[in-house]
């Protein structure tokens, strides 16, 4: 089916908008509501296409009802052809003057790309073999007053797509498919955790103290209480309070906000999964992480070896488990315990060293020299304890924390701990973190209530955090986080 002539993309095009407004008035003059009403009994396009289909020359009798958006149009005298799209697919509509009657034919002349319409008709094949609904009744369900992009060029501009995500979903099949895959992945995570006895909860988005992560918060003000509050930077501390309260397996999938930079892997508002399992540890979390992510891979289909750009990822278990210190030695060339060697390696790479503590230098070298070598999936475990203030130390080596991060092609996907449940050590660690911070700093506050909760007895536990957006990126082979978040943060649109 040939395309309609190209419509202007500019939504402020005076002629295009005026033409649609004129057609709106003509629809009303026909005594028809241009904004539609309830339209029961319609089938999904995919379900219609799955029906047996014979040629119209053989007089098909299968009556169907469909609803969707007009995305293509071709006029041929006394016959119009449309393509109608819904969430499940696209189908051709044939409108003949004889079949739809005088008013229906008049209405069909007023259809534009983007209009939402209902079709009653007979399902069959044209002489060219294309499955088609031959319309017998037309219903306008909503008139589009703004021009829609033409098929081949209208959605190629990335900025345009992001600012008009509603059009992107209609005209870019990949965007719609990623959205469906995201929904399926999140549902799979929930189903898997629920089957393992975890309980999903909701914790506050507004916090009186910014805690649970080392990140800069967004600040807001509560007028009635006359206090500043913070959009949460993590889900952790409230979920741990629930462990104290006896919810032994608990999780939340929620939005988190960090007032930091924007990149292809970072958006200031993103989605996290955090969970805690009483009487577990970081190795329990490795097993759980591997199982839940494999369940996600299997749920979306396509096998366990999946593309990532020009590379691939093999999710077949078991996944690698390698100590942080071993990877550091392999790729940096010195032991992470060798202070002189670490300093020398950092200096050679021109990393800032002045005022940097040893463990900070170690991790900067790890990020610089190791992370992009991690093909994975690989669990990197046993981190320097100084980097992990909320983590239990190894009993035989207090300088090492029972923590892992999961990497795939240099991208961190998950972070997990054997949780620190000793309130004395926890309070001491918090206080050390606050040394030297200015009192007015939003992050320079001790969460005394959390310490008090721990002092009532928090069970030993394993805890896990997974960045949902990065997981979707990986499983859908999407190189930028903006394309897996329906509405990423953008600069205000220029009016010039």
Q: Level of helix content?
A: 25-40%
Taken together, the total number of domains comes to 2
What profile does the largest beta sheet have? 9 strands, mixed
- CATH-defined superfamily of the largest domain: Bira Bifunctional Protein, Domain 2
Which architecture of the largest domain per CATH?
2-Layer Sandwich
* Rg over CA atoms: 29 Å
Helix count from the secondary structure assignment: 14
Q: In the CATH scheme, what's the topology name of the largest domain?
A: BirA Bifunctional Protein, domain 2
Description:
The chain has 496 residues and is α+β, with helices and mostly antiparallel strands. The chain has two domains: 137 residues, Beta Barrel (OB fold (Dihydrolipoamide Acetyltransferase, E2P)); 257 residues, BirA Bifunctional Protein, domain 2 (2-Layer Sandwich), CATH 3.30.930. The chain contains 14 helices and 19 strands. The strands form four sheets. Strands 6, 10, 11, 14, 15, 16, 17, 18 and 19 form a nine-stranded mixed beta sheet that branches. β12 and β13 form a beta hairpin. α5 packs across α6, α6 packs across α8 and α10 crosses α11. It is elongated, with a radius of gyration of 29 Å.
Keywords, please?
496 residues, alpha+beta, OB fold (Dihydrolipoamide Acetyltransferase, E2P), BirA Bifunctional Protein, domain 2, nine-stranded mixed beta sheet, five-stranded mixed barrel, 27% strand, disordered N terminus
Concise description?
This protein is α+β, with helices and mostly antiparallel strands and 496 residues long.
SSE order and pairing:
Elements: H1 14-29, H2 45-49, E1 63-76, E2 79-86, E3 89-96, H3 97-108, E4 116-125, E5 131-142, H4 158-163, H5 165-171, H6 173-195, E6 199-200, E7 206-207, E8 219-222, E9 227-231, H7 236-244, E10 249-257, E11 269-278, H8 282-300, E12 305-308, E13 311-314, E14 320-323, H9 324-332, H10 339-348, H11 358-369, E15 378-384, E16 393-394, E17 397-408, E18 411-418, H12 423-434, H13 448-455, E19 461-467, H14 468-475
Parallel strand pairs: 3-5, 6-10, 14-15
Antiparallel strand pairs: 1-2, 1-4, 2-3, 4-5, 7-9, 8-9, 10-11, 11-19, 12-13, 15-17, 16-17, 17-18, 18-19
């Amino acid at each position: 089916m040939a395309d309609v002539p190209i419509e202007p993309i500019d939504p402020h095009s005076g002629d295009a908008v005026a033409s649609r407004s004129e057609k709106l008035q003509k629809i009303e003059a026909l005594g028809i509501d241009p904004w539609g009403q309830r339209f029961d009994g319609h089938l999904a396009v995919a379900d219609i296409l799955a029906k047996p289909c014979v040629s119209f020359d053989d007089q098909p009798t299968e009556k169907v009802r469909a609803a969707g958006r007009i995305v293509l149009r071709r006029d041929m005298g006394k016959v119009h052809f449309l393509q109608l799209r819904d969430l499940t697919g696209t189908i051709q509509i044939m409108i003949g003057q004889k079949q739809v009657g005088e008013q229906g034919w008049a209405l069909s002349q007023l259809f534009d790309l983007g209009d939402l319409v209902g079709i009653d008709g007979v399902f069959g094949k044209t002489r060219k073999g294309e499955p088609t609904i031959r319309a017998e009744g037309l219903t306008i369900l909503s008139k589009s007053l703004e021009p829609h992009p033409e098929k081949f060029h209208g959605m190629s501009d990335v900025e345009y797509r992001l600012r008009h995500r509603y059009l992107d979903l209609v005209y870019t099949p990949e965007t719609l498919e990623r959205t469906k895959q995201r929904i399926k992945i999140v549902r799979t995570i929930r189903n898997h955790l629920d089957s393992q006895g975890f309980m999903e909860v909701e914790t506050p988005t507004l916090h009186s103290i910014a805690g649970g992560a080392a990140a800069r918060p967004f600040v807001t003000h509560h007028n009635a209480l006359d206090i500043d509050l913070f959009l949460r930077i993590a889900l952790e501390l409230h979920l741990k309070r629930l462990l104290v309260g006896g919810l032994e397996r608990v999780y939340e999938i929620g939005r988190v906000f960090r007032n930091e930079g924007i990149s292809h892997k970072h958006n200031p508002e993103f989605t996290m999964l955090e969970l805690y399992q009483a009487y577990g540890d970081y190795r329990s979390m490795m097993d759980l992480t591997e199982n839940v992510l494999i369940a996600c891979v299997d749920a979306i289909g396509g096998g366990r070896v999946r593309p990532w750009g020009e590379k691939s990822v093999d999710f077949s278990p078991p996944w690698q488990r390698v100590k942080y210190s071993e990877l550091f030695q392999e790729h940096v060339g010195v032991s992470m315990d060798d202070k002189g060697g670490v300093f020398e390696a950092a200096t050679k790479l021109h990393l800032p060293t002045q005022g940097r503590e040893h463990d900070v230098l170690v991790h900067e070298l790890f990020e610089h020299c190791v992370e992009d070598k991690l093909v994975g999936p690989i669990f990197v475990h046993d981190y320097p304890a100084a980097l992990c203030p909320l983590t239990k130390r190894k009993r035989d080596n207090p300088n090492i924390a029972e923590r892992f991060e999961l990497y795939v092609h240099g991208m961190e996907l998950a972070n997990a701990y054997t949780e620190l449940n000793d309130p004395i050590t926890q309070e001491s660690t918090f206080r050390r973190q606050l040394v030297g911070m200015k009192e007015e700093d939003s992050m320079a506050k001790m969460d005394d209530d959390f310490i008090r909760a721990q002092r009532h007895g928090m069970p030993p536990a394993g805890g896990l955090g997974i960045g949902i957006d990065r997981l979707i990126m990986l499983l859908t082979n999407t190189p930028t986080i903006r394309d897996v978040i329906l509405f990423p943060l953008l600069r205000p649109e220029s009016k010039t």
